[in-house]
Amino acid sequence: MKVTPFSPNCGAVVSDLQLATMNDAQLEQLRDAFTEHGLLFFRDQQLPPEEHLRFANRFGKIVVNKFFKTTEESPLIAEVRKEKTQQTNIGGGWHTDHSYDDIPALGSILVARILPETGGNTQFANLAAAYDALPNTLKTRLEGLRAVHSNTHLYGENGLYRFTDLKDQLGGMDRVGDATHPVVITHPQSGRKVLYVNPGHTIQFEGWEFDKSRELLDELYAHVAQPQFTCSFNWQPGSVTFWDNRCTWHQADNDYQGQMRLMHRITLQGSELEAA
Ligand code: SIN
């Protein structure tokens, strides 16, 4: 198995490995690569739904998304679907999966099923590298802060998605809720300090006025979205991506109107997040 950085601060490509047939020693090597990079890309995989599930179960415990439709093949696999006729895509803005849960997701394994001819890349950002590069004064300001993460503004009765052409494929309107997490966490495996806020779900700092929160959050979001912390993955048939939700953001490009894109996503259960 070979692990090659994808870009200086963002992800790594794993080659010479089939996820469906790897042995236990390779799985342990993969865990180490996942801890080191937080974002792994695979090409030319043979990973039908049953093997997708098997890989996920070997790596961790599956947690089901509250809002997405699941696949015909399994209630444990979420569908990220955009039909030819739909305008809006799922996950089109920077976010981290499940940060609105008290126990946020460890990671997500995304498998390409139907791809547009061009476009439909997924972009990623590295939140550990972004934290390291913050000025010391800002790091000090963030110490001890907690932030509120929510899904109500997206999936609730008046949430943004309810006013789009995705509304019929999303459920869980009655399962919305918030959680609070430290703004800077210690990553449970790597021990690195990570900036744990994201534009999709973090709505404000706990105990702060909304406008003051917005100002600082926007500053942090602009910092993370800089090219030196981000990368863009170009999907091909057989591509798989496995990202760590505790130390990355992602967003899906919506630049393939009139074409279909279908991805299968399995999300893995994480643990409570500790302040750095
Ligand atoms: C997601 O937000 O999990 C979906 C990403 C993608 O479709 O590329």
UniProtKB/TrEMBL annotation:
<dbReference type="InterPro" id="IPR051323">
    <property type="entry name" value="AtsK-like"/>
</dbReference>
<keyword id="KW-0408">Iron</keyword>
<dbReference type="Pfam" id="PF02668">
    <property type="entry name" value="TauD"/>
</dbReference>
<dbReference type="GO" id="GO:0000908">
    <property type="term" value="F:taurine dioxygenase activity"/>
</dbReference>
<dbReference type="GO" id="GO:0006790">
    <property type="term" value="P:sulfur compound metabolic process"/>
</dbReference>
<dbReference type="GO" id="GO:0046872">
    <property type="term" value="F:metal ion binding"/>
</dbReference>
<feature type="domain" description="TauD/TfdA-like">
    <location>
        <begin position="3"/>
        <end position="267"/>
    </location>
</feature>
<dbReference type="GO" id="GO:0005737">
    <property type="term" value="C:cytoplasm"/>
</dbReference>
<keyword id="KW-0479">Metal-binding</keyword>
<comment type="similarity">
    <text>Belongs to the TfdA dioxygenase family.</text>
</comment>
<keyword id="KW-0223">Dioxygenase</keyword>
<keyword id="KW-0560">Oxidoreductase</keyword>
<dbReference type="InterPro" id="IPR003819">
    <property type="entry name" value="TauD/TfdA-like"/>
</dbReference>
<dbReference type="InterPro" id="IPR042098">
    <property type="entry name" value="TauD-like_sf"/>
</dbReference>
<protein>
    <submittedName>
        <fullName>Alpha-ketoglutarate-dependent taurine dioxygenase</fullName>
    </submittedName>
</protein>
